[in-house]
Amino acid sequence: MKFNVKKTRANIVISIIIFIFTFIVLCICAIDAGYVVLTRYKVQKLTETTALYMTSFLNSKPLDERNNETLKPLKERFEKLYSSTLSGYYNFRMNDIEIKNEALNPKIKVNTEANIPTLFLRYAGIGYIKILQTSYARAENYDMTLIDSDSSSYTFESGDIITDKDGADIGVEYDGDYFIFAGIKGQDNEIFWSDAGYASNVSSKKVLLMSEDSTPYEAYCVQNDAEFDFSNVSKRTIGLVKYIKIYKANCANDVPKKEDLSLGETAVPDIESSGALGGEPGDAGGSGAPVVKVLNSVKLIKKSDF
What we know:
By secondary structure, this protein is α+β, with helices and mostly antiparallel strands. 23% of the residues lie in helices and 35% in strands. It has helices at 5-59, 68-82, and strands at 90-100, 107-117, 128-143, 145-149, 153-163, 170-173, 177-185, 191-195, 203-208, 217-223, 226-228, 240-249, 291-300. The strands form 2 sheets. Strands 4, 5, 7, 8, 9, 10 and 12 form a 7-stranded antiparallel sheet that branches. Strands 1-2-3-13-6-11 form a 6-stranded antiparallel sheet. A hairpin with an 8-residue loop joins strand 9 (203-208) and strand 10. Helix 1 (5-59) runs antiparallel to helix 2 (68-82). The radius of gyration is 30 Å and the shape is elongated.
C-alpha cells in the first residue's frame, strides 16, 4: 500500500485549522457566558437593593400611601439610574412591583429585566441577552436586647446593624427623661458613641460633659416615649448603629447651655454632677427599664415567605 505523504500533510493541516477555529469559537462562547453570568449577578444585586429600599420607603409612609403609586417615582429613578450603558447593560426595567401586608410589616416583590450586550456573539447575530430577576423583601420591627444596666443607665444591642432609612429608625418606650447615645464598634472592639437625642423631635438641647478629656459637646435630653430619625436634621446623621445607651435624666434641671458659657470656659458639669441625673441611685428620673425598638428594619426573604 502506497503512503501519500502530501495528502496526509494536507489532512493534518485541515484538522489543525478546524481545531483552532473550534477552540476560538469555544473561547468566545466561554468569554461571553462568563460576562453574562457576572452581569447577571450585578443585576440581581441591583434588584435586591431596589426591593430593600422600596420596602423601607413604603414602611415609612402612612397606611393610605402604601401603594404602587407611591413607589412610582422611585421606580422611574432606579430605572433611569441603572439603564446607563456604562454599567454594562441596557434598558434596566422593573416589570412588576407587588405589595402585600400593607398594614403591618409590608412585603414587596420586584421583577426586573435588563438587556446585557454580548462581547463577541454580536458578530454572530446575538447582540444582547435578556436577563430576568426577582427579589422579595419584608419590613419588620423588633426589640433590641438589654445587655447591661446599672442604677442610672441601660445598654442595648441590636442583632443586626441599624442603617439610616426613611422615617423613624428606632423607638424608645420609657416613663421618664433620658439622654440617648448610639454606638458602633471599631476595629479594636471599642464602642464609639455619639448623641442620638438630636434625632428626636421631643427633645430640648443641653450641653453636657460626656467624656473624660473635658471636651464638652451638645447632648439632648428626651422626655418619655419618642421615635428617632437619624437623618431628620440637615447635615447631620448617624449611618450605622449597633448599640444604644440610655442615661436616666431629669430634663427640668438647669444645665448650662453652650451659648451661656464664658469665652474659653470648658468646665462644663459632667453627667454625674450636673444635676441632669435626677433622684437617688436606682430612682434616676424614671421607673422601670426602657424598651428600645428597631423600626423600619428590612430584610430579603424567600419566595415561600412572600
